[in-house]
Design goal:
single chain; two-stranded parallel ribbon; 13 helices; 4 strands
Length: about 230
Amino acid sequence: MLIDHTNQRILEVLETRDKPTLKAWLKEGRASGLLAELEEVTTDMWDGFTMAVREALGSRIRIVIDRFHVMRQFQDRLGAARREIQRRLPKEAAGELAGSRWLWVTNSENLSPQQQQELHRLKRRFPDLARLSEHREELRRVFEDREIRTAAVGTLRLREWCRQGRRLGLAALEPFYKMLENWMDKIANYFVSRSSNGRTEGFNRNLRCLLWRACGMRNFNHFRLRVLHALG
């Protein structure tokens, strides 16, 4: 599914998500003029997408890795890092953390006053987990800092965040730091215009509604036409 975020509409629904299919569509869009004013493409971390964009549209197009995909990957590593810390604790102390996962992975503003109070208590009781939680919050603050307006500054801040995080000495976080470094240029492009694929989730819900109302659709072409009629 390819979305025009400026005009809030679906441009096309492709039958497969492989690189040749996307590349062919992008080339056709460039030739027809549909993508003549395109400046930026937001995507997730899959080489097939980014390579198709670069090969079909050239280096003038800014490729942005969606911030929320980055945070989702960090959340996955966060759970592994939390378990790494818990394994170091005495059995009785680790037992106190049973059922607390939601408190550690939820944004503080989405916790009830009682949940926030319990989280503060656990942070005082388990300082290593408190530092890990603060590390997560610092990543959020970097992405939300409106003073960062360029990819270069964003890169510096993200690299500093990685450097500080490695001081925690948690092996579970290392794969995330390496991923961040490998995709740094495209992730840091977020700070230029702060584009994201957040709207895509809304379109995905609409697509599921269309399938539900039709009791399913086996013919892809019929499904594509229905989507473009309703959301294109």
